[in-house]
Amino acid sequence: MLASYFTANEIKGSPCPKCLVPMTLGRILPEPSGFDLHTFKCSGCEFVKCVAVETSAARPHPSALQAPG
After folding, report:
1. Taking the model in full, what pTM does it have?
2. Measuring CA to CA, how many Å separate 54 from each of 4, 23, 61, 68, 69?
3. Cα–Cα distances in Å, from 45 out to 16, 17, 48?
4. How many Å apart are CA 22 and CA 13, to the nearest integer?
5. How far is CA 34 from CA 5, 24, 59, 61, in A?
6. What is the pLDDT of residues 10-44, one digit of tens each?
7. Which residues of 4-25 are buried (b: 16+ CB within 10 A; e: fewer)?
8. Is 28 helix (H, G, I), strand (E, B) or coil?
C-alpha cells in the first residue's frame, strides 16, 4: 500500500491500520525525485505500508525564501 506524502515525524510510531500494533521501519529507499520511500511493517499482522517522504535536500532553505517585492 502506498500512502500520500508525509513528513517523517508524522509517520514515526504510527499504529497499524488493521490491528493497531505500532509499525516498525523496515527500509528506506532513495527515489530520484527528491523523496525517499519508507517501508513500514506491522509485527502483529504483517501489514506493509509504503510512504514517500520528502528529503531535506528537496526542501528550499528558509533563507532562500523571500517575500515578493
Report:
1. 0.63
2. 11, 20, 14, 25, 29
3. 9, 10, 9
4. 6
5. 12, 23, 9, 14
6. 666 688 989 999 888 889 998 877 888 888 899 89
7. eeeeeeebeeeebeeeeeebee
8. strand
Q: Return d(Cα 9, Cα 57) in angstroms, integer.
A: 17
pLDDT digits (tens, 9 = 90+) for 52-66: 888 765 555 555 555
Ordered structural domains, the chain, with CATH: 2-57 (2.20.25)
- Cα–Cα distance measured from residue 55 to residue 26, given in angstroms and rounded to the nearest whole number: 18
| DSSP 3-state of 42 | strand
Per the CB < 8 A criterion, the answer to whether 47 and 41 are in contact is yes
CA distance 4 to 52: 7
Q: Which amino acid appears at position 40 of this protein? A: F
